[in-house]
Specification:
By secondary structure, the protein is α+β, with helices and mostly antiparallel strands. Helices cover 29% and strands 22% of the residues. The strands form six sheets. The chain has a six-stranded mixed sheet. The protein has a four-stranded mixed sheet with strand order 1-12-9-8, with helices on one face. A hairpin with a 5-residue loop joins strand 2 and strand 3. It is globular. 44% of the residues are buried.
Length: 518
């Protein structure tokens, strides 16, 4: 082979080697299954965008490990007796990634930007009166204090402010935008700063040496944060099989979310392991309660008695998630013994209810998709279990988009479905409940339940809220607008090169407090 052809071959081979294959030893390499949509927090965003940007920016409050809300950039939060005024006292010593100190002026500037319709902030409708609350004023008594005044009391103000899809209402330095107001890049207060985004390839974050940690243990998106690695590099690897291969070959240190099938394979390999956490997502079988057949609650109850949550949870999650009959997730602090009460499998009672309702084997069509394997597997198992009680379920397999359209329009008898996480039980109940005439996607329109949900969105006392959620669960079990089966689990695949990584209920990777072993 000539020298020229050898050089050509070397160059050709080089183009097939991923750009992320040989990083510096002080870099944590993370597989991201899709590219960022932007670097402007909470505007053009998705889960991947949030996961990266929330290493760079922080809000006044944030979710704790158990999905409750605690102070982040605020040192404390005081609420007025009427529930309409929130006073935030800011922490001392916090700096932006350009070295400037954080004061109440930047908080007000950031929130004026979020509340400006031109910013196109995803969460604006939650705060401008179109949703459950309206911020009437943001005031600055002094450089360390910010006061938010609402039009009405809301138990969900801090919860909504902390939402990850809202990017926690990130507090930014004004230099994040140009003189014309156009977005440049985030200058936040987080433990890592944005170094480079190469669209379609990778995002690189660098340690912010001036970071002011709250101290203490890691606690969700609040608590102590330490950037133990110099660099975090998120590599865009859209194919799950390619991400797994990169992990097993040592080219990647972390795949934040793998399937239950991959877990068994990865756990059998040297140099890698998995960690899991229960999440707030919800798997369920939905009923159209206005359907001529399924409007009879006896048939819905018979289905609930025929379907065994324990079998479905065990089979579809391979034991990684326990069964849960409640809309309140198992990981929620509001999930108590009351929420554990559901239907036991009782074939004789199911058959009795069916006979009483005049059911004679009429087909019941269940919609399902193959994009989400657990959703499909749930339907297959439900069909087989229901058949033992004489219930004739026919599966109709659609692509995900078509099923979502049918869900949104309420055009189905029943379907196997999965809901994304909601961080408060009031929001979990709200996502399934509402008047079908106005919101056809909603499955539960019990007027008393709707009233209780609205109360839970206003009342802040934990004991009173617990009583409301307990009552709602008991009503849900009685009405059977859906059969909740289980909450999901996030399974992270991790190289033994890393130390300290833990998944959590919010299903977002956190690379602070994670070290690279020497």
């Amino acid at each position: 082979m000539t020298r020229l052809s050898l050089l050509a071959l070397t160059a050709a081979l080089a183009t097939t080697i991923p750009a992320w294959a040989a990083p510096p030893s002080d870099t944590i390499r993370v597989a991201l299954n899709g590219d960022l949509r932007s670097t402007d927090p909470g505007t053009k965003r998705d889960d991947n965008t949030d996961a990266v940007i929330l290493h760079v920016v922080e809000g006044l409050v944030a979710y704790r490990e158990d999905a409750t809300v605690g102070p982040m950039l605020a040192d404390s939060v005081a609420v007025s007796d009427d529930g309409k005024t929130y006073t935030f006292t800011l922490r001392d010593g916090v700096k932006f990634q350009n070295g400037a100190p954080m004061t109440s002026a930047e908080v007000v500037w950031s929130w004026k930007r979020w509340l400006d319709p031109k910013t196109e902030w995803r969460c604006l409708p939650e705060f401008d009166g179109r949703g459950r609350m309206k911020i009437e004023a943001v005031e600055v008594p002094d450089p360390k204090t910010v006061v938010f005044r609402l039009n009405a009391p809301s138990a969900l103000f801090l919860t909504t402010m902390a939402r990850t899809d809202c990017a926690e209402g990130a507090i930014l330095h004004p230099d994040s935008v140009g003189p014309d107001g156009k977005w440049i890049a985030p200058i936040g207060t987080g433990p890592y700063r944005l170094e480079k985004w190469e669209p379609g390839q990778y995002v690189t974050l660098k340690r912010f040496d001036g970071y002011a940690s709250r101290g203490g243990d890691r606690d969700g998106y609040t608590g102590g944060k330490q950037a133990l690695a110099e660099t975090v590099r998120f590599n865009i690897i859209g194919d799950p099989a390619a991400a797994k291969t990169a992990l097993l070959s040592g080219d990647i240190d972390l795949v934040p979310d793998v399937s239950v099938a991959d877990k068994a394979e990865i756990d059998g390999q040297k140099g890698v392991h998995t960690e899991l956490a229960q999440t707030l997502s919800m798997s369920a079988i939905l009923f159209q309660t206005r359907d001529p057949l399924l409007k009879d609650v006896r048939i819905r109850r018979a289905l609930a008695m025929a379907i065994d949550n324990s079998q479905i949870a065990q089979a579809t999650t391979m034991g990684t998630a326990p069964p849960n009959p409640s809309v309140v997730p198992t990981a929620s602090p509001y999930h108590t013994e009351v929420e554990e009460q559901g239907y036991s499998r009782d074939m004789e009672e199911a058959k009795r209810l069916l006979a009483e309702a005049g059911y004679h084997g009429q087909p019941i069509k269940m919609l399902v998709n193959r994009k989400y394997q657990s959703v499909y597997d749930t339907a297959i198992l439900a069909q087989a279990l229901a058949q033992q009680a004489g219930i004739n379920i026919e599966l109709e397999v659609l692509d995900w988009g078509a099923q979502l359209d049918r869900y949104t329009s309420g055009d189905y008898q029943t379907m196997s479905f999965s809901y994304s996480a909601r961080m408060d039980p009031a929001l979990s109940y709200e996502m399934i409940s509402g008047p079908k005439d106005k919101q056809p996607r909603k499955v539960w329109e019990n007027p008393e339940a709707l009233k209780l949900i609205q109360e839970a969105m206003v009342i802040g006392d934990p004991e009173q809220r617990q009583a409301i959620f307990d009552k709602l669960h008991q009503m849900q079990i009685a009405d059977v607008p859906l059969i909740v089966t289980y909450n999901g689990a996030e399974i992270a695949a991790i190289s033994d090169r890393l130390e300290g990584y833990k998944p959590w209920v919010a299903s977002k990777p956190r690379l602070w407090n994670v070290a690279i072993k020497n």
